[in-house]
Write a structure and sequence with these properties.
Elements: H1 2-22, H2 39-42, H3 50-68, H4 73-92, H5 106-109, H6 111-134, H7 140-165
Helix pairs in contact: 1-3, 3-4, 4-6, 6-7
């Protein structure tokens, strides 16, 4: 239990630092805004209590908001993701439920499951985030292109980072 908390704390720190110190300063174009820090929420263990997920969602979002000076946009989008995560896991749950040793990773659950799990959650986060950032629907076409491009780039980052944080057997590195 303690080692799982330490691993998740380290993952939190690494992803926030990656997002705020490196990714924030990389220009990939107007339509590609990677937000891989949300991987922290996606990779929380299945047995994490929903209330704790919402609290952690708020904390990581608020932490990124401090660095971006974005006045709660990241925090609110992360809370929406944390809320949607509960229903996504419920929808994708095997009949007999998740085993206690299973983690929501590509290595443990497979590519198809991870695609059905992560992609809609990333899309939900990005829709909420970018439309809240625009604070309106005047440039809805531009915002939707930004959502699609950013969702794709973020999913690729999250998919690749899976192999940095998890070994072949699905155990956190």
């Amino acid at each position: 239990m303690i080692s799982e908390i330490a691993k998740n704390s380290l993952r939190f720190l690494i992803l926030v630092l990656l997002q705020t110190l490196i990714i924030k300063n990389i220009a990939l174009g107007t339509y590609f805004v990677p937000l891989p820090y949300i991987m922290f929420l996606l990779m929380l263990p299945f047995e994490t209590m929903p209330l704790l997920v919402l609290i952690l969602s708020f904390v990581i979002g608020l932490t990124v908001d401090v660095f971006y000076d974005s006045q709660g946009i990241h925090a609110s989008a992360c809370v929406v993701l944390g809320f949607a995560r509960f229903y996504s896991l419920k929808l994708l749950s095997p009949r007999e439920g998740y085993e206690i040793t299973m983690k929501p990773t590509v290595q443990m659950m497979g590519n198809a499951w991870f695609l059905y799990y992560a992609l809609p959650l990333i899309l939900t986060h990005h829709l909420f985030f970018f439309f809240l950032e625009e604070f309106g629907f005047e440039d809805a076409g531009f915002t939707l292109l930004k959502v699609v491009g950013s969702t794709f780039v973020t999913f690729v980052f999250v998919y690749i980072f899976q192999f940095l944080f998890y070994r072949k057997d699905g155990i956190a590195a």
